[in-house]
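Milestone 3.1: sequence recovery, worked example.
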């Protein structure tokens, strides 16, 4: 791939990421126009969907763990702020 194709992929991936639906494997819906834009066959998305099932499990675990950790940190900060706040 040449630099213009890589730039097209980077630019389109960022903006298509904002429009992807919040459903499992929703990014593949947005991936097809990107593949066609750089001249790759759209049929490759079917192969990617079949292969993505295993890594998607690990991605879901990592996302859930990150969400739980962030929630715990915010809750810990809220409790410590409530305890140290002066009443009055």
């Amino acid at each position: 791939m040449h630099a213009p194709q890589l730039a097209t992929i980077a630019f389109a991936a960022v903006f298509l990421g904002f429009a992807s639906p919040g459903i499992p494997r929703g990014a593949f819906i947005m991936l097809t126009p990107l593949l066609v834009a750089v001249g790759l066959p759209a049929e490759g998305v079917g192969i990617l969907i079949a292969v993505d099932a295993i890594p998607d499990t690990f991605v879901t675990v990592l996302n859930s763990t990150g969400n739980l950790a962030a929630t715990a940190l915010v809750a810990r900060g809220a409790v410590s702020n409530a305890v140290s706040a002066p009443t009055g």
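The first helix runs from residue 3 to 19. The mean pLDDT is 79.
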